[in-house]
Design brief:
heterodimer, A: two-stranded antiparallel ribbon, 21 helices, globular, B: two-stranded antiparallel sheet, two-stranded antiparallel sheet
Chain lengths: 499, 368
């Protein structure tokens, strides 16, 4: 999206090279509708299903937020392979498998809470790196068939995983905790209850602690940057220092008696979250405006930031309208998972402007050009797979700790399926996927997931129909999107008969 | 030495390993206390049971649409045909095994042909990514059929849940219908003497002779078709699009023909499968069946671009053979390992598909 804007602007600034017809607002709207047809269709479907199901909007919203925190990270882990031109990464199942292995050992060793999560994390990360490396190498042998290969690879990995958990663990490899083993046999039980050890380990992290970690992290970054810059005789890293001071100030606020309760929570009520988000948006807009005063830029659009401020104030005002307050009053969000999701969004965005990110984009657009400009195509692709697999592994850890029960042989099966369907529902395609699409997609897809059974029950007198319908939607949207992608690609000139 | 190497090259390592493993399993099984006659009976039964479904892969691969993971379309058509035939018999008032089988085929084949036609037109528009698209089309069709099974207004007590009174059962018993007509000696015994040859026992080995005959007949039909003018044109379309077009053959039409044939064979295949098995499996049971068929034909020596009837016969024997023989052997070795055979199936079938993909796609499939 950003890239598009930049391109338009560069075109506009050189009007004698290409004359572009300015689009009328009508045309703009139409093309926007056309580009987002899948998303719009789902918006309509969701609104209809919510209305039919008879659930209150507040109930649906609360559930969507829970599922958002649960699944968001995994969906966002799909973006990097799309950037690298490897399509939708069906093999994130492998990341999930690694995460489940890590979590299993953490449970088996009797660890609880944050310690357990950290151990699971420490096992998962190297494992996912290794798997991602292998998957990347394999995909380099099957360029152009990554998606089908990834899908089959997921099933294959599932087979090996079952072999490991059903026959090797408890059989060849002894397991410490006896009640994890199938009674009277070998292998691990069907479900592992995480209540009392790892359930909500991440969800229960308090906002204060998070802020403290953020302050520490920023301080370390600031110190390193300062040392490096001083060594190179450059100016101080002003941006980082200001950010550090700001965050430290916010942390300082937590000691103010009236506000300390506000920060000493792990479930942030949605009302407060909106207040905080709006405050952040306003600070961000002001920051941009001030930065522009100090360092003027021709392309700066003041209007855009003023709109942000206006929307923020408007939304904040809305929370005082009784109707909206009723909808959001009972919803809350888990602090750490949402912070992690936001962090991953920022990472995805920042990553685009790094060198590796640019290389990846080049590889995604044309491997031939990338190769000609000296990019090691295969290496970039392997890195993309490693990153995606590692992120998917972490995503699965977040998912399982929130869910609280760990279906040993089922939790990973639908991971790729649902994550990809959610991403596509948001309007992403095989070639292009953004944070915004991922977030919209998760919200829409899970709204449908929550209300479909009840809508089915109301419409057809049969809850199973809704159940099957949502499964159909998740498969169907992938089939549709893959077909449309291939269709559009085929519209390009193809091989012609020599005459 | 080089001769041996060439032979191995021609057979291919994975096939060789699997064949040796199969032979090893057969050799081992008497020592595990299993009767060889039982082993052979099972192998024959499963071989003929899956044969036609696997045969459905051949027209698809030959016409250039690749491994047809979307054979589920044909399977759904076959299931619709079978259930409708049973319902018709129910309304007629008495079970009619042979009529059921005939009606099942008669209803399923046109539906499959129609679905195949639409599906082929879709596949023509997505050249180059047929396999990914067909996998998901297959999944979606199964998911959609789940809703169909709930909504079809059938009344037969064999088909629907007894308590709810609506919605079809997960597994439908074919005992009253066409179950075992061509394969089960117990069923065949009740028929007139002229038909007794359909299934018999030789030295303890149950030979589903009728089923084997039907399978080989279908193989022959496909084999003959591939040698006919149309068949050769279709194979050419799959092999070299440019060359075929320069010979004034409509490539897209040939691909549609291949898809239709594949889907129709899938429909016949599932009916025959149910006939031997004795049950119809609805809902998500056929979800991964396409993968099994693909794996079997690949084990038989097919690639993503070429497949022959021989590949089908060999592949069905090796793949189904390993699955049937490994289960009892594993059970003897490890009493608690009842699902190990299933795990082995997942690993082998997906492993062989991955292997085939890595062999044929090696970097030559970059977008135009």
């Amino acid at each position: 999206m950003k890239n598009n804007n930049d391109m338009n602007q560069s075109v506009v600034s050189q009007p004698d090279v290409i004359v572009m017809q300015p689009e009328t607002p009508m045309q703009k709207t139409l093309s926007w509708i056309f580009e987002n047809k899948v998303m719009l269709m789902f918006v309509a479907l969701c609104v209809g299903a919510v209305a039919v199901s008879g659930n209150t909007v507040g109930f649906v919203l609360g559930n969507v937020l829970v599922r958002f925190g649960r699944n968001g990270f995994t969906v966002l882990s799909l973006l990097i392979p799309v950037l690298a031109g490897m399509g939708l990464n069906f093999s994130i199942v492998i990341g999930a498998i690694a995460a489940q292995t890590g979590l299993f050992f953490a449970v088996d060793w009797g660890l609880t809470g944050m310690t357990g999560m950290l151990v699971a994390f420490l096992i998962t990360t190297p494992l996912t790196m290794l798997f991602g490396f292998g998957v990347g190498r394999l995909f380099n042998k099957m360029k152009g068939a990554e998606m089908i290969a990834g899908l089959i690879l997921g099933f294959f990995a599932d087979g090996l995983y079952q072999l490991f958990f059903l026959y090797i663990l408890g059989g060849l490899l002894p397991v410490r905790t006896n009640n994890l083993i199938i009674p009277g046999g070998i292998g691990i039980k069907n479900t592992i209850d995480l209540t009392g050890n790892m359930k909500y380990a991440l969800d229960l992290v308090k906002l204060v602690d998070l802020l403290l970690v953020l302050v520490a992290l920023l301080a370390v970054i600031a110190v390193i940057q300062t040392v490096v810059r001083l060594k190179n005789k450059q100016s101080l890293p002003l941006k980082t220092l200001i950010l550090l001071v700001l965050v430290a100030l916010v942390y300082g606020l937590t000691f103010v008696p009236g506000l300390s309760d506000y920060f000493r929570t792990d479930r942030l009520p949605l009302v407060n979250a909106i207040e905080m988000g709006m405050a952040m948006a306003i600070v961000y807009a002001l920051w941009k405006i001030i930065a522009n005063r100090v360092n003027p830029d021709k392309r700066f659009k003041l209007g855009r930031y003023l709109i942000i401020v206006a929307v923020a104030v408007g939304l904040f005002a809305l929370t005082y309208v009784p109707f909206f307050y009723d909808v959001i009053k009972s919803s809350s969000i888990a602090v750490l998972p949402f912070a992690l999701i936001a962090g991953l969004c920022v990472f995805n965005q920042v990553f685009l402007s790094t060198r590796l990110g640019q290389n990846m984009r080049t590889v995604g657009q044309s491997q031939v050009i990338a190769n000609a400009s000296g990019i090691h195509v295969d290496r970039v692709r392997v890195i993309a797979m490693i990153m995606s697999t590692v992120l998917a592994g972490w995503g699965q850890l977040i998912y399982l700790q929130n869910l609280g029960t760990f279906a040993t042989y089922g939790a990973h099966l639908q991971v790729g399926q649902f994550a990809i369907a959610a991403l596509l529902v948001g309007g992403a395609s095989v070639q292009k996927a953004t944070n915004k699409q991922a977030i919209t997609g998760i919200i829409l897809f899970h709204t449908l997931f929550i209300v479909a059974p009840e809508a089915g029950a109301k419409l057809f007198n049969n809850a199973m129909i809704g159940e099957y319908f949502r499964v159909f939607v998740s498969y169907g949207v992938i089939a549709l999107s893959l077909a449309m992608h291939a269709w559009q690609r085929k519209k390009k000139p193809e091989l012609e008969l020599p005459k | 030495m080089s001769n041996a190497k060439q032979t191995i090259q021609r057979i291919g390592w994975p096939r060789l390993i699997i064949a040796l493993f199969f032979i090893l399993l057969i050799v081992v099984s008497p020592f595990m206390g299993l009767k060889l006659s039982d082993v052979f009976s099972d192998v024959l039964r499963r071989w003929s049971m899956f044969g036609i479904l696997i045969l459905a892969m051949v027209p698809g691969v030959q016409s250039g649409i690749g491994l047809n993971f979307g054979v589920s379309l044909g399977i759904v058509a076959g299931l619709i045909g079978s259930t409708t035939a049973i319902e018709l018999s129910f309304q007629h008032g008495s079970p009619r095994p042979w009529t059921d089988l005939g009606f099942a085929l008669l209803i399923a084949i046109p539906i499959a042909a129609l679905l195949g036609l639409v599906y082929g037109m879709l596949l023509n528009r997505v050249k180059g990514s047929e396999m990914t698209v067909s996998t998901y089309v297959g999944f979606s069709v199964i998911a959609l059929s789940n809703i169909v099974w709930l909504l079809l207004p059938y009344k037969s007590g064999v088909l629907i849940w007894p308590i709810a009174g609506e919605g079809m059962r997960n597994t439908i018993n074919l005992e009253e219908s066409f179950g075992g007509l061509l394969s089960n000696p117990a069923v065949v015994e009740k028929m007139p003497t002229a038909l007794r040859w359909l299934a018999f026992e030789v030295g303890g080995v149950v030979v589903p002779f009728g089923m084997i005959l039907f399978f080989l007949f279908m193989c022959l039909a496909v084999w003959l078709f591939l040698r006919s003018k149309k068949g050769i044109a279709m194979s050419a379309a799959g092999e070299n699009e440019l060359f075929t077009r320069s010979n004034a053959i409509d490539v897209n039409q040939m691909r549609i023909l291949g898809t239709v044939l594949s889907t129709v064979l899938g429909a016949i295949g599932i009916i025959m499968y149910a006939q031997v098995f004795g049950f119809l499996q609805l809902y998500n049971a056929p979800l991964m069946m396409g993968f099994q068929c693909v794996a079997a034909v690949l084990i038989g020596g097919a690639t993503t671009r070429r497949a022959s009837v021989t590949n089908v016969i060999v592949g069905a024997l090796l793949f189904q053979g390993i699955l049937t023989t490994s289960l009892p052997v594993i059970k003897r070795l490890m009493p608690s390992g009842s699902t190990l055979s299933e795990v082995v199936r997942i690993i082998i079938s997906n492993g062989i598909i991955l292997y085939a993909l890595s062999k044929t796609k090696g970097g030559n499939q970059i977008e135009k």
